[in-house]
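Below is a filled-in request sheet from our internal design queue. Each sheet records the structural input a requester submitted and the sequence that came back. We keep these sheets so that new team members can see what a complete request looks like end to end.

REQUESTER: design group, bay 2
PRIORITY: normal
MODE: inverse folding
CHAIN LENGTH: 256
BACKBONE (tokenized):
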């Protein structure tokens, strides 16, 4: 299997640019070359800290990738308050999260918007991290496959493996986000395996095999190893715990 683990910190709406500089510096001190060989490390600060974090990464030669938490789908224009994929790419951003449940639930990002954002991110030469997941009600009603399968298909509809195949998927059950209630290793692996199966059906074995699928939702230093032991889980999209460089570094080094 050729998939390199990806540990991504989604800082959400936290940190001033000054705090962000300190966070990434502290993270850099805690990691060594063996960690970066084993695991791809990604931080997704708020827009206002991207430039500062990028400067630290560059001047300290840190092999840490830079990601954004959202973007608009248009290239430029009269879209007050929005940020375009091209602006992000120019800042050295290589990943953009699209479809995070907080955006879907609070900011009206529906499947159509998510699909447009995903294409725009690909078009600007960056890698989308497509986030999806079910609510507790949906899990209890046993419609999880319908929900996450629907979200995946809506986002990828019409894309072929060549154009879309480099994307990262993040399975984030909404009931596990910020709640301290993680999906069990088995629940997470089952959903991730299901998503990989759908990618296989659409895009074939090779793409299914190379697509990284992350788990997100109350991942922490205590549960990371169990989740990562599952063959289909290729990393984490980590919220709260990624705001503490000690915890995030411990999670990156889960394999030790
Ligand atoms: P928590 O790790 O805080 O549950 O957040 C997960 C998440 O939403 C990452 O995108």
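RETURNED SEQUENCE:
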């Amino acid at each position: 299997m050729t998939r390199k683990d990806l540990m991504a910190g989604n800082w959400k709406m936290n940190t001033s640019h000054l705090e962000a500089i300190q966070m990434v510096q502290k993270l850099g001190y805690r990691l060594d070359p063996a960690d970066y060989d084993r695991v791809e490390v990604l931080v997704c600060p708020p827009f206002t800290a991207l430039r500062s974090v990028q400067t630290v990464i560059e001047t300290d030669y840190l092999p840490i990738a830079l990601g954004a938490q959202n973007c608009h789908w248009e290239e430029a224009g009269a879209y007050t308050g929005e940020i375009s994929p091209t602006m992000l790419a120019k800042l050295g951003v290589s990943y953009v999260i699209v479809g995070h449940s907080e955006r879907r639930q609070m900011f009206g990002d529906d499947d159509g918007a998510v699909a447009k954002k995903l294409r725009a991110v690909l078009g600007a030469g960056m890698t989308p991290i497509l986030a999806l997941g079910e609510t507790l009600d949906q899990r209890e009603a046993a419609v999880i496959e319908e929900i996450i399968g629907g979200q995946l298909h809506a986002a990828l509809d019409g894309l072929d493996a060549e154009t879309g195949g480099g994307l990262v998927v993040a399975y984030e059950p909404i009931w596990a986000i910020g709640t301290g209630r993680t999906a069990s290793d088995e629940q997470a692996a089952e959903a991730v395996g299901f998503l990989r199966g759908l990618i296989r059906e659409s895009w074939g074995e090779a793409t299914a095999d190379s697509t990284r699928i992350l788990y997100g939702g109350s991942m922490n230093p205590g549960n990371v190893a169990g989740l990562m032991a599952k063959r289909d889980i290729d990393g984490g999209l980590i919220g709260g715990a990624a705001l503490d460089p000690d915890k995030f570094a411990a999670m990156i080094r889960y394999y030790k």
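SHEET NOTES:
- The mean pLDDT is 97.
- The radius of gyration is 17 Å.
FILED BY: M.R.
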